[in-house]
Amino acid sequence: xxxYCGDLxxxxxxxxxxxxxxxxxxxxxxxxxxxxxxxxxxISQVVFEGDISETAKSLGREYVIMVKGLVRQRExxxxxxxxxxxxxxxxxxxLEIISRSETPPFExxxxxxxxxxxxxxxxxxxxxxxxxxxxxxxxxxxxxxxKLARKFFWDNDFLELETxxxxxxxxxxxxxxxxxxxxxxxxxxxxxxxxPQIYKQLIMVAGLDRYFQVARAFRxxxxxxxxxxxxxxxxxxxxxxxxxxxxGLVETLVKKIFSDIIREEMExxxxxxxxxxxxxxxxxxxxxxxxxxxxxxxxxxxxxxxYNIVKRVIENKGSVKGINFKANYGKDSKVDKDFMLxxxxxxxxxxxxxxxxxxxxxxxxxxxxxxxxxxxxxxGKEIISKFNAEDGDIIIFAADLDEQLLKEVLGKLRKIxxxxxxxxxxxxxxxxxxxxxxxxxxxxxxxLKPAHNPFTAPTIDDMKLLDNEPEKVRGRQFDLVLxxxxxxxxAIRINNSELQLKILEMIGIENKEAMETFGFLxxxxxxxxxxxxxxxxxxxxxxxxxxxxxxxxxxxLFPKTRSFDSPIDGSPTKIDSKRLLxxxxxxxxx
Length: 590
Ligand code: ASP
Fold this sequence. Notes:
- 30% of the residues lie in helices and 24% in strands.
- With 590 residues, the protein is of the alpha+beta class.
- It has an eight-stranded mixed beta sheet with strand order 6-9-10-22-21-20-17-11, with helices on both faces.
- Helix 4 packs across helix 6 (243-262), helix 4 (133-155) crosses helix 16 (539-546) and helix 14 runs antiparallel to helix 15 (511-524).
- The structure holds aspartic acid.
- Residues 173, 195, 197, 489-491, 534-536 line the site of aspartic acid.
């Protein structure tokens, strides 16, 4: 009987099995050789005794072998409780070496202390890294979620359709696209999709009113810790439905994921928070609501103190805002002085002039150095009561002329400090962020740009503001946030060509350019376009957060590094300039 190494169970005792796998650990005990044989389901111990042990002695780590042998129970004192197959072993009768292995560049082990490989090395030898149980579990978890989602959409009568990968260079999300030169039409380019956005709208115009796809998207964004230039979206679109319907559908999907896979209680429907309130209270449009920690304005209180540097900002019409954290400071806190000093640095790198932090002890505010607390202590009680602070709490606050920047930086610190303290009201906290502004106003040039993408319909009530107060117009856009991560976003689309042209014009794309770039979408809207709504879940991040992990790269088979390199194959690589010239007529000095 052929079985996986991880599938050995007591039922097989006395039976002959065939195992194929990787020789993970080899122990030579004189006359006996023990091999821990691994495959994606687990590890079984194989024992080689007698003549066959001589051949087994020649095995090296990660050799691929086939073993036939008899299953038996181990001596009870050698049971391995850490391994589900740990009471059993296979007494080998035959051994075939399928393939030899060089000594791997790092030890493939589940023991955290022994696993020292850097992420770069792991990514270069990803096929070895993926042999580790932790990685297998991540990949299997992702597979489970994807399968469940596919089934969910099939069951709800969605068509699984594929949009193209080589597409026109358009403005889909505001990031830069990756470009692909055409060989047959010299000097022209395809672009890789930043999302299937326009195509899913075209699918609705076609009347295929329920679409979904597990789609790859490509965005040449500024490099950030948690971004990948290519990532996967669970993408869908429906005709004749509104935002309530889409949110309901997503919640039903999440409900299923929680009942079938995560097996945790979850409250439905998810709370809704409007964008303005999210920024006001949490400094972020993706607030982590596993903890409360709200931003409070303390301009009036600080104005009465002797804290002169901050008071100067207030005199120049700046404001002072802060957050109180239940940090248990000075007791068993994960937050200490050094960490708080690193937060001061972080506030500065994020654009604030400084950050003050106080701790509460004996019902009074304190600071390091104490002079700061001295300068505000006469209003200390007011501050304590404003924040409802108690002993062990840490209050951070800062002043700035730019109130938006102030809230955003406090929002970022809130997330870092909140995560560090690690006291969560619940394991998973979903929230819908709604009523986004349709446009963002560029801080530097004051121009309008779409807050998400230029295809989102304005809120009906706000249509009247489009001409004179466009910055006040809300978009029919909604994001799903989980534990402070944006895990999905969707919108009701514009289904009227004139309105679409107008919105593009408002963001600086004149009609001529609009027609050149988006003509194929705008044309389609003239031929009977249904009301249409859609959503996309960022699958990589969604699965990572559901597994309570930070690093989305651990859920992608062959991810790029933070600097968007691909260690597994060394890409991006230089291309011979002669080839570029001959094949693509691209005259680029490389
Ligand atoms: N295309 C959007 C995005 O990638 C999602 C959507 O609105 O359907 O963010």
